[in-house]
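User: Sequence recovery, please. Input:
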C-alpha cells in the first residue's frame, strides 16, 4: 500500500467513526455494529499493509474523541502544519 492509500483508508475510518458518533447508543445499535464491522475490515487492511498497532490505536483515539492528543496520527485533521 502506498502512503496515499494508507491515508485514504485512515480517512475512511474517520468517516465511519463520524457516523457512529451521530448514531444513538441503545437505539441504533444494529447500525452502529454495521459501521464497527466496516471499521474492523479497514483496520485489518492497515495492519496487513504494515501499519503498526501503535499508529492504528493513535488514529482510533483521535477518531473517537474528536480531538487529538498527538496531532500527528494518520491523516489527522488536527495536525499543526
Ligand atoms: Zn489525530
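Assistant: Recovered sequence (81 residues):
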Amino acid at each position: 500500500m502506498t502512503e496515499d492509500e494508507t491515508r485514504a483508508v485512515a480517512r475512511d475510518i474517520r468517516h465511519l467513526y463520524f457516523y457512529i458518533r451521530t448514531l444513538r447508543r441503545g437505539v441504533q445499535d444494529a447500525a452502529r455494529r454495521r459501521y464497527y464491522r466496516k471499521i474492523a475490515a479497514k483496520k485489518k487492511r492497515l495492519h496487513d499493509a504494515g501499519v503498526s498497532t501503535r499508529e492504528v490505536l493513535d488514529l482510533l483515539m483521535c477518531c473517537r474523541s474528536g480531538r487529538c492528543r498527538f496531532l500527528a496520527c494518520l491523516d489527522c485533521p488536527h495536525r499543526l502544519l
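Residues 14 and 50 are 19 Å apart (CA to CA).
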